[in-house]
Design goal:
CATH architecture of the largest domain: 3-Layer(aba) Sandwich
Radius of gyration: 21 Å
Number of domains: 2
Structural class: alpha/beta
Strand content: 5-15%
Strand order of the largest sheet: 3-2-1-4-5-6-7-8
Shape: globular
Length: 315
C-alpha cells in the first residue's frame, strides 16, 4: 500500500517509541524495515507490536492491507534503509548519538527519502549538521503512546527545505496523525513546553505543601484535564467567556490571570522534592501495577478517540 508516496518506512531504534511507531505504520498498511543494535531487539519489537495490535484493532485503526507480516528486522542499519521511502528515527535523546545516526542514515537512504527524528527536544539544525543532504532532515516528534495519540510536531532546521516540511506534514496527515508545524526551532518544541509549564507548578505546589501528589493528579484528571482532552486552552477559554467569548473573558479575568502568572513557582528538583514526589506516586498507585495502569489508560484513550472522531467539531 502507498500513502502520500510512501510504501516502505524504515524505523531506526525500536525501544518504546520506535516499537509504537512500527505498530502504527504497519496498521496503516505500510511495509516496515526496522533496525536496532541492542541484543534481543527483534524479539522485543515483535512482542510490542503484537501487544499494540490488539489496541489498534479495538480502535478500528487497521486499514486494508495492514499486517504484522509486513515487518522485517535488520541487524545492520544500512540494510533497513536501502529501499526506504521515509525514515523515522527514535534513538536515545543524545545529540552525539543522533548526529552520528543521521550522518549514517543520510549516506544509506535513497535521495528521495525524508529523514525524521522523534526527538523530544534536540534541534534539527544540529541533527542535520553532518548530513550531505540536510535539506531532507525534519523533526517528527510524536507523543506516547505513539500508536494511539495523533499529535506529531514537525519542524525543519536551518538547512531543511520547505518542501521537506510540507511532505512530512502531508505524510503524517495521510496516515491519520494530526501534524502541527513548529515554525521556529525552540527547546522542547511546543507540547512539551506546555507540559513543562504545568509540571513546574505541580512540583512547586508539592514543594510548598499546598497539595499532595494525589490531589494534584485529581485536580487535573477530574477538572481541566477533561476539557483539555476535547479542546485546547484557547478554545476552552473562549467558551468560558460565554456569548462574549475570548474578548469578554480577557476583559474580566485578564488581570487575575496575570496575577496568577506572577505568583507561579520556580522549584528546584532537590533530592527531598524528588523523594516526596516519588513516594506520593507510589502511595497513589497503591497495588495497581504499571502494566494495569497502562492498559486502563489505553482502553480509555481508545474510547475517547472514538468519541472525538465521531464529532465533526471535536475531531
Amino acid at each position: 500500500m502507498e500513502v502520500a508516496g510512501v510504501k516502505r518506512v524504515a524505523v531506526v531504534a525500536t525501544g518504546v517509541i520506535g516499537a509504537s511507531w512500527a505498530a502504527y505504520f504497519l496498521a496503516r498498511g505500510l511495509n516496515v524495515e526496522a533496525t536496532d543494535p541492542a541484543a534481543g531487539a527483534e524479539q522485543r519489537l515483535r512482542q510490542a507490536v503484537a501487544r499494540h495490535w490488539t489496541v489498534l484493532q479495538r480502535q478500528g485503526a487497521l486499514t486494508p492491507g495492514a499486517s504484522q507480516d509486513r515487518l522485517r528486522f535488520h541487524a545492520a542499519l544500512e540494510d533497513a534503509l536501502v529501499h526506504a521511502d521515509f525514515v523515522q528515527e527514535s534513538g536515545p535523546e543524545r545529540l552525539d548519538i543522533k548526529a552520528d545516526l543521521f550522518a549514517r542514515m543520510d549516506a544509506a537512504a535513497p535521495p528521495r527519502a525524508l529523514l525524521a527524528s522523534s526527538s523530544s527536544g534536540l534541534p534539527v539544525t544540529e541533527l542535520q549538521a553532518r548530513c550531505k543532504r540536510p535539506q531532507r532532515v525534519v523533526l517528527g516528534h510524536p507523543f506516547s503512546p505513539v500508536h494511539l495519540i495523533p499529535l506529531v510536531e514537525v519542524c525543519g532546521g536551518e538547512r531543511t527545505s520547505p518542501e521537506a516540511v510540507a511532505q512530512a506534514m502531508a505524510f503524517y496527515a495521510a496516515i491519520g496523525k494530526r501534524p502541527i508545524h513548529v515554525r521556529r526551532e525552540i527547546t522542547g518544541h511546543i507540547a512539551n513546553r506546555l507540559q513543562a509549564a504545568l509540571w513546574r507548578e505541580a512540583f512547586h505546589l508539592v514543594d510548598q505543601g499546598v497539595a499532595s501528589v494525589a490531589d494534584i493528579d485529581t485536580a487535573i484528571a477530574h477538572g481541566p484535564g477533561l476539557r483539555w482532552a476535547l479542546m485546547g486552552p484557547f478554545m476552552n477559554l473562549h467558551l468560558s467567556g460565554g456569548e462574549g467569548g475570548m474578548e469578554h473573558l480577557l476583559a474580566h479575568l485578564g488581570g487575575p490571570i496575570e496575577a496568577w502568572w506572577q505568583d507561579l513557582g520556580a522549584p528546584s528538583l532537590t533530592p527531598e522534592l524528588r523523594r516526596r514526589v516519588a513516594q506520593g506516586v507510589e502511595e497513589a498507585r497503591g497495588e495497581c501495577t504499571n502494566a494495569a495502569l497502562a492498559v486502563a489508560r489505553d482502553d480509555a484513550l481508545t474510547q475517547l478517540l472514538r468519541v472525538k472522531q465521531a464529532s465533526d467539531v471535536l475531531d
